[in-house]
Write a structure and sequence with these properties.
By secondary structure, this protein is α/β, with parallel strands linked by helices. About 25% of the residues lie in helices and about 25% in strands. The protein contains 7 helices and 9 strands, in the order ββαβαβαβαβαβαβαβ. It has a 7-stranded mixed beta sheet with strand order 5-4-3-6-7-9-8. Strands 1-2 form a two-stranded antiparallel ribbon. Helix 1 packs parallel to helix 2. The longest helix has 14 residues. The chain is globular.
Amino acid sequence: MSDGPPEQLKRFVFSSKYNLRGEPEEEKLEVIIPELLQASYSFYTWPSAPVLAWFLWENRKELVGKRILEIGSGTALPGIVAAKCGAKVILSDSATLPKSLAHTRRSCQLNNLVVNKHIQIIGLTWGLFLNNLDSVGQLDLILGSDCFYEPAVFEDILVSISYLLEINQGAKFLCTYQERSSDWSIEHLLAKWNLHCQVHNINNLGATAGLDIHELVGDHSIHLLEISRQI
């Protein structure tokens, strides 16, 4: 990563006053994320990612042993948090963006996650049914943060999600997105691809750890969605 803009390291700290058994014992996780601020989408941690990461941290007890795929990983903050909490994680980004995949590997390296040992990384392009989509294996959960960044990619994402949820009965897609226009909607695409969406309330996210959600998201409007197949 020596060519191009300089790397900056961002530190994210997740904490809790209680351990996984519900006992009053402080637990803490620190994740270091490399960013290239003058580069493209994949090299920066957008506001949606820490929101999803905090939700995963607060529900870390449910992540242990789960098989998780993160799509559009980029700097991979949510996926790395899930891996650190005991999940079996596959990180992915577009197969056509090798520099993005290399940056994802860099994020893993900084957090002592050895690729193909502690975590996996694959090229996965939305809307294209490549061999990698079938070789992912069984999944319990799919993650995505700020994947819905422009309408041109909405259907490509949802057709891929619909397929993965169809072959992984009971799995869900958990995603955060930043609202950029009130005219943008995925509602008709959800119906088209037989998907159901539940919106999670994030107003109290991180409150028990002293986190102010408004400081986390700033002036952005962030939503947390849980998408599943219609029964």
